[in-house]
Amino acid sequence: MAPSESALMTPDQLVQQHGITRVLAFGAHPDDIDFGAAGTIAGLTASGVEVTVCLLTSGDAGGFELGRDSAEMARLREVEQCEASALLGVHDVIVLDERDGFVRPTDELVGKIVRVMRQVRPEVVISPHPERAWDRLQKSHPDHMACGEAVVRAAYPYVENPFAYPELQAAGLEAFKIGHLLLTTAPQHQVNLRLDVTGQEAVKMAALRQHFSQHPDAERMEGFVLDQMREIHAGDGFAEEFHWVTVNAPDTISGF
User: Fold this and answer.
1) Nucleus as a keyword (predicted)?
2) Integer angstrom CA distances of residue 213 from 67, 91, 93, 143, 157
């Protein structure tokens, strides 16, 4: 069942409604997932859901301090992500080897994502949205959109097609069907789900603080994020917003 337009529910209600036990969250860079969905992920793990994080890049082109080489920045940002994820109850962080700033939804990258999906076998996949959000262009970094496009292609049809990437099937990573996508950074006209994460806002801020290499003014960043969460909630609380997409429902016919 799809949520009604701009529905507001808690992560636990989403878990109970859809029987969610495993979630796989993709980001182009360290901190992408935490900006978009840290409160939701904290709520999911609190409800007993196993969450895995997969980054396409190490974020080696990020940061505001000159003088760090890219290898040092990559190592630092991977550590920051692991520490941030641990605060949310996530202990499995996978990092792929795409180049920060130059992510493209190639067949090779889609295959890497399919491999991770078949290893984790989640019911729900979190990812940046593949469409540009003109309301706030900073959400739509080209790497974010490329990550979203590659994840959506992997989610359908490739992860469920045993004839796609046959080397994965031969290695015992069998095809399966993903239930839903939970897309962050969505254009406003695509937002159809708001998750009430009131009570998780502090752990979200704590997770974002772990990405200290990216925030020359952490106080201003926190204020901006909290104000956004209050606006999304539209009440006395904090929320995160998504485009919820059903890939496979009980009545879905492949190809239609």
Assistant:
1) no
2) 13, 21, 19, 19, 37
DSSP SS3 for 10 = coil
| Nearest Cα to Cα of residue 53 among 21, 18, 14, 96 | 96
CATH number of 7-246: 3.40.50.10320
Q: CB–CB of 90/34 below 8 Å?
A: no
Convert the pLDDT of each residue in 83-121 to its tens digit. 999 999 999 999 999 999 999 999 999 999 999 999 999
pTM of the model: 0.94
Where exactly are the structural domains of the chain?
7-246
Query: How many angstroms separate the CA atoms of 104 and 21, rounded?
Result: 30
CA distance 27 to 48: 22
Tally Cβ neighbours within 10 Å of residue 201.
22
Backbone conformation region of residue 43, classed left if phi is above 0, alpha if psi is from -120 to 50, else beta: alpha
> Cβ distance 41 to 51 under 8 Å?
yes
Q: Coil, helix or strand for 218?
A: helix
Q: What is the pLDDT of residues 12-71, one digit of tens each?
A: 999 999 999 999 999 999 999 999 999 999 999 999 999 999 999 998 876 555 456 788
